[in-house]
Structure formats: structure tokens, C-alpha cells
Amino acid sequence: MSVRVTFVVASVVLMTSCSSPGCPEGYTRRDDRCIAESEACDGADLDGDELADVDDPDADAWCNDPSRALPSALARCGASGCEVDECDATRLDCTSAPGCETDPVASEEHCGTCGHACGWECRASECDDAVQIESGWAFHCARRASGTVVCWGSNDQGRLGDGTRTDRATPVIVVGIDDAVEITLGEHHACARRSDGSVWCWGSNASQQLARPVSSLGFSNTPIEALPSSAGAVEIAGGGFHSCARLATGRVTCWGDNARGQLGDGTRTSRPTPADANIDDVVELSAGSFHMCARRRSGGVSCWGADPTRVLADDTRRDVLSPPPAIARLEALSITAGNIHNCAIRSDRRAVCWGDGRFGALGVGTVANHPAPDVVVAELTDVDEIAAGHQHTCARVGSDVFCWGNNGLGELGTGTLDYETLPRELPVMTDAIDLSVRGHDTCVLRRSGEVVCWGHNDAGQIGDGTTGEDRLAPGAPVSPPE
């Protein structure tokens, strides 16, 4: 027995010493080959099953071993090695980094899906960017997709609505507004129409534009209700020192300064509470500094209030205290009221402007006043949007932007301070979807969700974190809200 045991051991020793070299750990011998106990993803058939390595399920298992698994991913063995086969439910594979490294809930570059970049912020897989921009005097506000509102620039009398009176060179959130469906800005105040139809305003109340007696409230740096939801507001417009709302019935109600008849109620009495204007078929409303314009169901346009330079297209050049009949020979698709000039997009999508023509604000090649909308803005066709400011005007044709008029502080964005009597295209603005002008600055909302402003920057209204240096051309975008 002892002899037999000795023989077997000797035989084994003899076989080992005479065959191929020993196998490393994790390998076994088969037909003089060292065969891996499990496949690896390295392009070689290690387990001897004559299947290509990249097709071997065992290689997939090797890729998913905890010691080498890709982050947040189920891996497979591919031509380039271990590759992502499927991401975890909460992750995306959007970059060249190994695994599923992207959180689509919060990634500003890949919000909700790979390549969907946000201009400002990604929240719950949706971009919370600006969807509407509006301009006041030395400040701007934006309504975001979430219904919140942010403002930047001058905060005199609390016009930014953040609970302070501190100027801001980057956007700050308006307190208490999270369901805005529309915003409008006056010269020193702002208003938001909320999802329930109520209207809330903030900023200066020096002319009762917040719908409060000035004796009880000089300003409010947070929003207060100006019009209840029961009124049925469907559109709002902020003038220089007054506010108006279009109701679902087609009527208009206004409050605030009425020294020039801009409230349209037939008087010059300023109102701390909403008063009905004498008009009932309005489909669009726009507020100038001391006047109002309305587009009527017929497409006709009526304007009332101050008329220093025939801005009302009225031959008397006197203030008009109630909405007059529609302006002759004008059928409009859209209207905009500036400081002392107005513009409209006609049914043929040509633009016309009338009123004060100083600095070429009417876009007809001269600086003369025009008392009626009978001369089209030169060189523009297929106009989609137009906005009249203090003494300059901008228009959007498709996604291209054109500006003309006063340029004393760079508001035209042309890179110079020369005024323009004809539309001047801004070659760097080729992706605009909304624009806004008021004082001496201009803002554009880009398709990317970014907002870009230029012009005067004395109070940080350019929004890029700087104050004091005017911008003569579009540059850095408005910073994301704080």
C-alpha cells in the first residue's frame, strides 16, 4: 500500500515537471493550455470556449464585477472594452467619462436628456430659464419657466421686489411670486399676473401705480395685490407711472397717474383703485410713458393720453382722455407703445411707427415727426416682434434683431454711439426669441435660454455682475439668478 501511494505521487510530479509551465492563479490546465476559470474583457478567448471575447456573456460578467464596475451603469464587453449597456434609472451617459456620470435632474448641460443645455438652471429635469423679459427704467425682469420672477439693475424704491432697496448687478428672486404667467414693467414699478388671474405689483407707489393711496404707501419692495383674481385679468401693461389690465371681457381697467388722461376714464383724476377705461373690444394692450394704445378686435388701433408729438395719431395735439375711434388705415397684428412714439406690425407684416422721430426712432430714414402710421419702417419685411423704447426701437425678424434710433448710451448694440435712422442688424444676435426695450438699454432672450443686455449700465442693468461701464454691443449674458 505504501509503495502504491509513493508511485502515484511520483507520477504526478513527473507529469508536472515535463509538461508546459505552471498556470497562474485563477487558471486551470486543459490540453496543455492554461484556461481561465472565467472570461475577461480583453479581446482574447481565455476560457477556451472558442467564442470571441466580446460576445462572451462571461466577459460581461467580468465587466460588472464590483471591483471594476462602471459608475451607475450595467456594463457589457464591447469592441473597445467594457462599455455602458444601460444606465441606472437616475443617471445618463452624456460624456466620455466612464459610466453613467450625468444627473439629468440637475445638470445644466444635460437637463433631462443628453445635450439639452439650460441657459440658467436645471430643476427636476426641466430648464428653469427665462421665458419672458421686460424692461423698466434702469432695471429688467424675467419670468422663468417655473413661474418665479427675477429682476436686476436699479432697486430704487424697491422695484426689484426682493425685499431690499439695494441695486443688483445680477438677477435676484422676487419675493413670494412662484406662479407668474405674465410680467410687465413701468418706469419705476413692476407687476405680475398670477395663475389665478390676480395682479401683484411692487416698486414705486408715488403715483398710486400699486393701487394704494400714496398717503398710506410710498413704495413696496415686495409684491402686493393690486387687482383680485375675480377681476378676470388676461393681460397687463405697465406705463410710466400707471398700470392697466385687459379683462377677459375685452374691457380695460387702469390705476395710478392720470394727469394726461392715460387711464382712459374721461378724467385727469389719478386713481388708487382700478377704474374702467371707456373701451370694450380690446385684444392687446401696450403702455407708453404717459399714454396707452389698444389693438381692437377689428385689428384697428386706438391710443389715448398725452399727445406731445402726435403720438396718438390725432390732429389736435391735445391730451385725449378717453379711447378714440381706431386710427385710420391701420390694421395691426401687434402694437407697442414707447415713450413718445408708437409702432405696430401691420397685417402684411411690415412695421410702421409714428410720433416723435428724433434720432430716427421711427426707422424711416429721417428725424422728422410723423403724426400717422403711413410710412413703413425701411428695409424690414416679415416682422415678428417690435418694441418701442424711450427714443429707440428694436425689431425681430425670425431670430435676427434690428435696432434704430437714439444710441447715446449704446442701446442699439452697434458698437458705436452713433444714432441710426434706419434699421441696423446686429450680426451676433441670430437666435433671438424675445426682446425688450424701455430706457437706454436693450435685452434679448436667446433660444438657449440665456438673456443678453446692452446699453446703459449705471445700476447694473446689464446683469453680468458689473456696474458703471456701458455696453455698446451684446456681450456676456446675464448671470444666472442668485
Provide a short characterization of the protein structure:
By secondary structure, the protein is mainly beta. The protein has two helices and 31 strands. It has helices at 2-18, 57-63; strands at residues 27-30, 33-36, 73-78, 81-87, 122-123, 126-127, 130-135, 139-144, 149-153, 168-173, 180-185, 189-194, 199-204, 219-227, 233-238, 242-247, 252-256, 271-276, 282-287, 291-296, 301-305, 332-337, 341-346, 351-355, 385-388, 392-397, 400-405, 420-425, 432-437, 441-446, 451-455.
Protein model, in words:
The chain is mainly beta. It has two domains: 25-102, no CATH class; 129-455, Regulator of chromosome condensation 1/beta-lactamase-inhibitor protein II (Methylamine Dehydrogenase, Chain H, 7 Propeller), CATH 2.130.10. The protein is built from two helices and 31 strands. It has helices spanning 2-18, 57-63; strands at 27-30, 33-36, 73-78, 81-87, 122-123, 126-127, 130-135, 139-144, 149-153, 168-173, 180-185, 189-194, 199-204, 219-227, 233-238, 242-247, 252-256, 271-276, 282-287, 291-296, 301-305, 332-337, 341-346, 351-355, 385-388, 392-397, 400-405, 420-425, 432-437, 441-446, 451-455. The chain has a four-stranded antiparallel sheet with strand order 7-8-9-10, with no helix packed on it. A four-stranded antiparallel sheet has the order 11-12-13-14, with no helix packed on it. The protein has a four-stranded antiparallel sheet with strand order 15-16-17-18, with no helix packed on it. The chain starts with a helix and ends in a 27-residue tail after the last strand. Residues 1-20 have low confidence and may be disordered.
